[in-house]
């Protein structure tokens, strides 16, 4: 049981941190994509959606290069902190943010797209700033989108394999998340432990997705 608990807790920690960052960064990006008429919008939308179609190993490979000690970001990080980003929990968080980005941005953008302009314009005529109108009108009306973004980002990060393996490796207590632990047990023909871990992941993933659909259904009925 302890062999399951460690990787699971690390995976939950990674998913939680990644989701918080993605909601913080993805919300303004999704709002801009929803409201902007810029010529750059299609290119940025394509870049955001890229992790959906790219093989995880491809994204993991390029992230490994960029975050490595000789990469653009990795070299700077080593100079500032004296530690490498690759094969570290921090590196896993950065890689996970890139890989799970569309699962946060796209639901939020869809929720913002569904908003009417009348409510926001009414708030502006009453003297509310753009920021006030966003938090008092747009956010409350987009709660189902936020719930979907949070749960999909969390679930997707929880199930990552290729990207985290390429960037983080397999260091117990540091980067050995549950998906990698399952792979290790399968390779060593320890199917009993792999089965135990897989069941835990399946049940947990089903529970959080079921919760998302149930909550959104109730919210939409109001």
In words, what does this structure look like?
- With 222 residues, the protein is mostly helical.
- The chain has a single domain, classed as MetI-like fold (Orthogonal Bundle).
- 81% of the residues lie in helices and 0% in strands.
- It has 11 helices and no strands.
- α2 crosses α5.
- It is globular, with a radius of gyration of 20 Å.
Keywords, please?
single chain; 222 residues; 11 helices; mainly alpha; MetI-like fold
The chain-level structural class is mainly alpha
Q: Ranges with pLDDT <50 over ≥5 residues? A: none
Strand content: under 5%
CATH topology, which one?
A: MetI-like fold
In one word, what is the shape? globular
What is the average of the pLDDT values? 88
Largest pleated sheet = none
Supply the CATH class.
Answer: Mainly Alpha
Separation, N- and C-terminal Cα atoms: 43 Å
Ordered list of secondary-structure elements with their pairings:
Layout: H1 2-35, H2 41-53, H3 56-67, H4 72-81, H5 89-113, H6 117-125, H7 130-141, H8 143-158, H9 162-168, H10 178-187, H11 191-221
Helix pairs in contact: 1-5, 1-8, 1-10, 2-5, 3-9, 5-8, 5-9, 6-7, 8-11, 10-11
């Amino acid at each position: 049981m302890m062999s399951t608990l460690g990787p699971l807790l690390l995976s939950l920690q990674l998913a939680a941190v990644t989701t918080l960052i993605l909601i913080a960064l993805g919300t303004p990006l999704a709002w801009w994509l929803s409201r902007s008429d810029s010529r750059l919008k299609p290119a940025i939308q394509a870049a955001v959606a890229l992790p959906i179609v790219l093989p995880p190993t491809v994204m993991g490979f390029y992230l490994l290069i960029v975050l490595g000690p000789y990469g653009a970001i990795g070299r700077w990080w080593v100079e500032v902190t004296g530690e490498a980003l690759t094969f570290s929990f921090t590196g896993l968080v950065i890689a996970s943010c890139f890989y799970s980005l569309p699962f946060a941005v796209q639901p939020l953008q869809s929720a913002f797209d569904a908003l009417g302009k009348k409510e926001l314009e009414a708030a502006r005529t009453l003297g509310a700033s753009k920021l006030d109108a966003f938090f008092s009108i747009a956010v409350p009306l987009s709660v189902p989108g936020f719930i979907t973004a949070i749960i999909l980002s969390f679930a997707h990060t929880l199930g990552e394999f290729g990207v985290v393996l390429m960037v983080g490796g397999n260091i117990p207590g540091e980067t050995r998340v549950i998906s990698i632990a399952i792979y290790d047990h399968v390779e060593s023909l320890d199917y009993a432990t792999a089965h135990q871990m897989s069941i835990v992941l399946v049940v947990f993933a089903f529970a959080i997705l079921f919760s998302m659909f149930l909550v959104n259904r109730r919210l939409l009925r109001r």
